[in-house]
Structures are given as C-alpha cells and as structure tokens.
Amino acid sequence: MATNPATKKALTYLLGVCVPSAKQNAAKIRIRKLDFDDYILMYFNKYEFVYAHDPEKRCKTGDTVLIQNLPEKLTRVITHKVVDVIYPLGDITDPITGKKVIGRNYRDHVEEDAELFGPLKSTFKYKERPKRGSMENIRDFTSKNIRVKYNDDPNDNDPYTVNPL
Q1: Staple 74 to which of 78, 95, 126, 146, CB 3.0 to 4.6 Å?
Q2: 4-19 tens-digit pLDDT
Q3: Can you give the pTM of this predicted structure?
Q4: Which keywords appear in this protein's UniProt record, sorted alphabetically (predicted)?
C-alpha cells in the first residue's frame, strides 16, 4: 500500500512573548509551558523558544503575540508565523470587559478616583501620551540589536552593548 504524500497536519496556535532576536524577518518568541513534577505533584514553568516569520516587523520586544505553526518549515529554524499582536508592551486590555488595565485596576476607575480626590502631580496621563512606537530611535531603542559586551575595550564605542556585570 502506498501512503498519501499529502497528509494533513493540524495547525496550532500558541501565545508567547517576543524577546530580542538578531534574525532578519523573524521574531524570537518565548512560549510558557507547564511541566508537571511527579514527585511533589506541582506544575512548574518551562519555557520554549521558537522563531516566527515576521516580515512586516509587527511585534516588538515585550509584546504578547499569537503565532501559528507553518505547514512546512520556512528555514531550518523558522517554524511558525506571527498571526497577530495581542497585547503591546505596557498596554494591557482585559479580554472579558475590553477595558484598559493598570496593575489590578481599570484605567477608568483610577481616573474616577483622581476626579473624586484630586489628581496627583505624579499621575501618568494616558490620554495625553502618544502611542508606543512614536518615540522609536529617540527614547525607545527596542528596535536596535542589543548585544552583550564581554570585555572592557576603551575603543569600543557601540551604544547598543550591555555590560553583564
């Protein structure tokens, strides 16, 4: 009997967080999975890293994204594609109510409290601030390739290196 060469493969969707990557047209995604320990009967976080095809560069570092596996590998390491950016970094929306969230509280509740008791000088004004991405390459350097500096060379003036010590 001959096997059918066009077998169907199930497409799965995964939720992950975008982390810095040096690949062109691809985003590195960290996917959290729960690993069960039989000895103490508890689940522990286990992280898996995959590369997702992102030619439009829609996701930035820290964004929560929805990815889908590809029917065939694009390259040796790129096995998924970015479907949508679910939550941009720092702009969380409650999926049930659709309201914006600050920590544990809704933004509109915090603004109502500020109206009742008077606003503080230190209160962040979300409506007056531009959306994320307007300060790119001015104050937001998440689009730059950050590298780790392993030696202290006085002639190395690269501003996008980080000293791990």
Answers
A1: 78
A2: 665 667 789 999 999 9
A3: 0.68
A4: Ribonucleoprotein, Ribosomal protein
DSSP sequence for the chain:
-PPPSS------EEEEEEE----TTEEEEEEEEEEEETTTTEEEEEEEEEEEE-TT----TT-EEEEEE-SS-SSSSEEEEEEEEEE-TT--B-TTT--BEETTEEHHHHHHHHHHH---TT---TTTSPPTTTTBTTTB-TTS--EE--S--TT---TTEE---
| Two structure tokens written together for 106 | 């809704």
